[in-house]
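FORM 12-B: Structure-to-Sequence Request
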């Protein structure tokens, strides 16, 4: 978060979102408030943060209410001790009648590792915790799961890695089975859409990315969606995040139905299967 403040504040001024979900802040609650509290208040934002010092960390910013704030969720496992305190990976609050979750799903690191099992257990606990309120819920953030092969620049590049395994995709499908809609894919079922591009090997400029940042919404909320898009502009410039913000407009779309990715990539690379390797194994 400290590195991104020069990017975050101008972005808030430009886009003026009502609710913002942030992940991987990597600061304590006190440091978040000291660094951003006054700046957010001057822009009309309330905020809630679940920090973990130099690791993880999630936040919610809202201009439309921030009620009944919940840190983590019932049954959230800890790591490495499942019975221990949960990591700073989840926070939720009611914003204008909708419970909004900001999530940083565990990465999983290596298939069948302790981290991988933790990821699956964490997702199952999340599913159980929201089952009774799915209709009024939006769960937003970095899922560290590529939902389908369409959501990766080359599915063969991910064979043997996390993010694409059947068990991870089944865990995501179990969330959707509660009646949650992947609002981006509902609106743009066949488009090339990525939200993350590795910093290395020119992956962003070649548009060799993956879609791992998702917004899932209960059916009554999904029916209100007027636009959903990825703010690719925010991935450009000096010291950007390797993720781009995902937008959803409910009821009204100030920018119109602008397309799935804004601005669209100028010349996305066309790659043969297996011709491009991942620059490195994605890790927490």
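FORM 12-B RESPONSE
SEQUENCE OUT:
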């Amino acid at each position: 978060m400290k590195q991104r403040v020069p990017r975050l504040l101008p972005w808030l001024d430009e886009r003026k979102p009502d609710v913002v979900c942030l992940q991987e802040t990597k600061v304590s609650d006190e440091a978040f408030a000291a660094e951003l509290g006054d700046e957010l208040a001057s822009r009309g934002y309330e905020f809630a943060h679940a920090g973990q010092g130099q690791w993880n960390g999630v936040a919610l910013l809202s201009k439309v209410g921030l009620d009944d704030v919940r840190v983590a969720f019932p049954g959230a496992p800890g790591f490495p001790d499942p019975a221990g305190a949960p990591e700073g990976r989840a926070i939720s609050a009611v914003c204008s009648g909708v419970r909004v979750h900001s999530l940083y799903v565990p990465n999983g690191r290596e298939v069948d590792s302790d981290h991988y099992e933790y990821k699956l257990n964490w997702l199952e606990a999340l599913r159980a915790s929201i089952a009774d309120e799915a209709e009024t819920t939006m769960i937003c953030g970095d899922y560290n799961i590529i939902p389908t092969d369409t959501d990766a620049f080359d599915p063969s590049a991910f064979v043997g890695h996390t993010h694409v395994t059947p068990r991870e995709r089944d865990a995501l499908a179990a969330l959707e089975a509660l009646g949650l809609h992947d609002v981006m894919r509902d609106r743009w079922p066949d488009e090339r859409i990525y939200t993350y591009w590795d910093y290395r090997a020119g992956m962003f400029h070649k548009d060799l990315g993956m879609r791992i940042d998702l917004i899932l919404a209960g059916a009554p909320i999904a029916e209100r969606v007027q636009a959903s898009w990825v703010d690719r502009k925010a991935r450009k410039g000096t010291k950007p995040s390797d993720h781009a913000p995902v937008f959803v407009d409910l009821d009204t779309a100030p920018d119109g139905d602008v397309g799935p990715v804004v601005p669209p990539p100028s010349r996305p690379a066309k790659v043969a299967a297996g011709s491009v390797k991942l620059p490195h194994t994605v890790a927490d």
